[in-house]
Design brief:
The complex is a heterodimer of chains A (113) and B (114).
Chain A: E1 5-7, E2 10-13, E3 19-24, E4 31-38, E5 42-50, E6 53-57, E7 64-68, E8 74-78, E9 87-94, E10 103-104, E11 108-112
Parallel strand pairs in A: 2-11
Antiparallel strand pairs in A: 1-3, 3-8, 4-5, 4-9, 5-6, 7-8, 9-10, 9-11
Chain B: E1 3-5, E2 10-14, E3 19-21, E4 24-26, E5 32-39, E6 46-52, E7 60-61, E8 64-69, E9 74-79, E10 88-96, E11 102-104, E12 108-113
Parallel strand pairs in B: 2-12
Antiparallel strand pairs in B: 1-4, 3-9, 5-6, 5-10, 7-8, 8-9, 10-11, 10-12
Chain lengths: 113, 114
C-alpha cells in the first residue's frame, strides 16, 4: 500500500506570492491533517479535513487555507507569503476514527525569499 | 491547554547501548493517546510507538518500549540495543481520545555513535 505523498517536495517563492501544496493520503484514509514545522515553533497544527469538510482548525491566519477533494486528496494554500512562512509542511492521513493512527508524508520544504 | 514537554533537547548514545528519552505532559482529560514519533534526517515522520491512556500495560515495539506513568503524567521512551539508524529527532505527542489534533513536544535529537 502506498504511503502518504506530498508534492512538490521543495519550493522556493518570494514574498507576496501564493503557493499551493498537495497531499495524497493513504488509500482508504479520509482524514488529512496539515502541520507546519519550524525550528522556532516546532510542529504546529494547521487544519484537518474529513470528507471534504474542515473538521478542525489551528491558530493560523486566514492566509492559510485548504480544501479536500472527493478522492480525499487535499491541497493547502498560502497567500501573500511572508518570510516567516518558510517551513516544512507536513500532511498526515488517517481513517475515519480519530482513535486510529495518523501516517505522515515526507513533507514539502517551502523557502520564502 | 495541553502541553507536552521534552526536557532533553539533545542526547547521544553508543551503538548497542540503551537510551531513555523523557516526556511529560499536562492534561485534565482521562481518555487520551500518547505517541512517540521519529523523524530521521530524511524528514519522513514515522510512528514509533503508541500508548492508550486506559491501558496499564506499557507498549512495546521490538527494541522500543515506553514507561507510562499516568499519575505522574510521564511517558518515556526506551531504546534498547541502539542502532545507527536510530539517529533522528524524536517527538512525543499527546492527543485527546476524540480528536485528531495532537500536541507535540519540541523534540529530542538523538545521535547514535558507532
Amino acid at each position: 500500500k502506498a504511503g502518504v505523498t506530498q508534492t512538490p517536495r521543495y519550493l522556493i517563492k518570494t514574498r507576496g506570492q501564493q503557493v499551493t501544496l498537495s497531499c495524497s493520503p493513504i488509500s482508504g484514509h479520509r482524514s488529512v491533517s496539515w502541520y507546519q514545522q519550524t525550528p522556532g515553533q516546532g510542529l504546529q497544527f494547521l487544519f484537518e479535513y474529513f470528507s471534504e469538510t474542515q473538521r478542525n482548525k489551528g491558530n493560523f491566519p486566514g492566509r492559510f487555507s485548504g480544501r479536500q477533494f472527493s478522492n480525499s486528496r487535499s491541497e493547502m494554500n498560502v497567500s501573500t507569503l511572508e518570510l516567516g512562512d518558510s517551513a516544512l509542511y507536513l500532511c498526515a492521513s488517517g481513517r475515519e476514527n480519530p482513535q486510529e493512527t495518523q501516517y505522515f508524508g515526507p513533507g514539502t520544504r517551502l523557502l520564502v525569499l | 491547554a495541553q502541553t507536552v514537554t521534552q526536557s532533553q533537547p539533545e542526547m547521544s548514545v553508543q551503538e548497542a547501548e540503551t537510551v531513555t528519552l523523557s516526556c511529560t505532559y499536562d492534561t485534565s482529560e482521562s481518555n487520551y493517546y500518547l505517541f512517540w514519533y521519529k523523524q530521521p534526517p530524511s524528514r519522513q515522520m514515522i510512528l514509533v510507538i503508541r500508548q492508550e491512556a486506559y491501558k496499564q500495560q506499557n507498549a512495546t515495539e521490538n527494541r522500543f518500549s515506553v514507561n507510562f506513568q499516568k499519575a505522574a503524567k510521564s511517558f518515556s521512551l526506551k531504546i534498547s540495543d541502539s542502532q545507527l539508524g536510530d539517529t533522528a529527532m524524536y517527538f512525543c505527542a499527546w492527543r485527546s481520545g476524540g480528536s485528531y489534533i495532537p500536541t507535540f513536544g519540541r523534540g529530542t535529537s538523538l545521535i547514535v555513535h558507532p
